[in-house]
Amino acid sequence: MRLKGKTAIITGAAQGIGRQIAARFAAEGANVVVADRNGELAERTAREIEAAGGRAAAITVDVADAASVQALAARTIDGFGSIDVLVNNAAIFSSLTMRPFEQISAEEWDTLFAVNAKGVFLACQAVSPAMRAKRQGSIINISSSVVVTGRPNYAHYIASKGAVWALTHALATELGTDNVRVNNISPHGIVTEVPRATISEEGWQQNLAEQALKRKGTPDDLLGAFVFLASDESAYMTGQTLSLDAGLRFT
């Protein structure tokens, strides 16, 4: 019950990694807001959490729309009284078509950045007043190992996650004066129930060859880090990136 009494918003929480984070946070005692563009799936996830004994609310949100994100924060405060944790999980990834950067249209670039980068910025803006007023809070962003390693054929995704990495550093300095922490998790090679067009079996084998740990990851491999950053156990930690990548850099 390391998150008992805290209220956490998880964006993109209707499925995939976000769904698992929401369930784990609820099991640790948090009030969980399942925020997702797919309201029906968000409701399903919230009901699953409640059936397991947790407290959850589903809120439909478009993280690329400032008014929608502000409404998310307002409804969270109305329902639970505070915002203690924000996990910026929502992103366009699994549905991407891999292609050389010369073939990525300006429209596709703008759509992806609106969600993956601007969406994080807008969500942080929306929760910061409540966190500053309480003089505590934890924002957890999600980047990617490809920001460091590079990878061909989805430059727009890599660039958007690089923006998240940099924004983490920028906001840690601004929000730290009010004891609000901003950290970043950089995962690699995680398999969820969501189908992915972004990697082939050949790509998986290359991943495993480059990892110190020779297996694919699952959301369970990430959840302990999210709980740590959301909890008071990491109260002296901000502006940092935890690389959960199976030892990708050590091969």
Compact summary:
The protein is an alpha/beta fold and 251 residues long. 45% of the residues lie in helices and 16% in strands. A seven-stranded parallel beta sheet has the order 3-2-1-4-5-6-7, sandwiched between helices.
Structural topology:
Elements: E1 7-11, H1 16-27, E2 31-36, H2 39-51, E3 55-60, H3 66-80, E4 85-88, H4 106-116, H5 118-134, E5 137-142, H6 146-149, H7 155-175, E6 180-187, H8 201-210, H9 220-230, E7 241-244
Parallel strand pairs: 1-2, 1-4, 2-3, 4-5, 5-6, 6-7
Helix pairs in contact: 1-9, 3-5, 4-7
Tell me what the structure shows.
- This protein has 251 residues and is an alpha/beta fold.
- It has one domain (7-241): Rossmann fold (3-Layer(aba) Sandwich), CATH 3.40.50.720.
- Helices cover 45% and strands 16% of the residues.
- It is built from 9 helices and 7 strands; from the N terminus they run βαβαβαβααβααβααβ.
- It has helices spanning 16-27, 39-51, 66-80, 106-116, 118-134, 146-149, 155-175, 201-210, 220-230, and strands spanning 7-11, 31-36, 55-60, 85-88, 137-142, 180-187, 241-244.
- The chain has a 7-stranded parallel β-sheet with strand order 3-2-1-4-5-6-7, with helices on both faces.
- Helix 1 crosses helix 9 (220-230).
- The protein is globular.
